[in-house]
Amino acid sequence: MEKIPKPHKPIVDHIYTADPSAHVFEGKIYIYPSHDLDHDGPSNDNGDQYAMEDYHVLSMEDFNSPCIDHGEALHVKDVPWAKKQMWAPDAAYKNDTYYLFFPAKDKDDIFRIGVATSSNPSGPFTPQESYIPGSFSIDPAVLVDDDNRSYIYFGGLWGGQLEKWQTETFTPDAEGPAANEPALGPIVAELSDDMLTFKEEPHEISIIDEDGNPILAGDEDRRFFEGAWVHKYNDYYYLSYSTGTTHTIAYAMSKNPKGPFVYKGKILEPVIGWTTHHSIVQFKDKWYLFYHDCSLSNGINHKRSVKYTELTYNNDGTIQTIDPYK
């Protein structure tokens, strides 16, 4: 029986890491986090304090093994179209290739989603010349389904610019819906077979309550803010996400990877720090939640550290809420 380290211990402490996307590749656990830098830039609702420039790939043989930092896998200077802010990434494996999906601001300060490829899960990754056509906002997460079809989920409010894409063009001064209107949901698109373009027009996911009513923008305990992640368990698709202003990880369930998803509850109570961002992965016969907090930096919001803990399902498929400090 593998023992799980105490949940308050970061998996690495020599660099600051956040937004962990965890996968099992080649029988090992690979984690694709963002890399927080220490700097003196401004802190604001646009997220300028999150000035990340590169990605490191982490891996563990199992949960009794040390976590290995494989070094720099991709840097913004090597991405032809990108200007700055290499935020939360994800990875996927298909076509005998490892794909790294990442957001960054283009030369016009508009967030786009890029793709880089490698023959090795630890990188280094070679970026495509341009971002995915039609991509926008942040926080890509990719699900390769059992039928080998692939879906990308993305979007984030405020600094993630999702509100500015309510029409088909970028509107710099656009605001989100009123409190009594349906909240903006994350975006989904099926990916082409080569994983480099959208196979269809991206569209918004609907998150609804048990009665079929949309979650409203003013319902900050339940509405989507950023950090979507989709995984599959017992024929259900689970959409989990950060609520942002109320600092929890919430989740909703569906029989369809494109939704609509029915809100079910909270997975993770608030952590130290403003942001919360996670992934869910199965390793052998157990499920794990990877997340971050700012305990290592004593609460400095742009100096975060990746952690993990075991995740437990109830008999009806719902997920037990986790207190990160118990």
UniProtKB/TrEMBL annotation:
Keywords for this protein: Carbohydrate metabolism, Glycosidase, Hydrolase, Polysaccharide degradation, Xylan degradation
Superkingdom: Bacteria
A Pfam family the protein falls into: Glyco_hydro_43
Family: Belongs to the glycosyl hydrolase 43 family.
Protein name as it appears in the record: Beta-xylosidase
The organism of origin for this protein: Aquibacillus albus
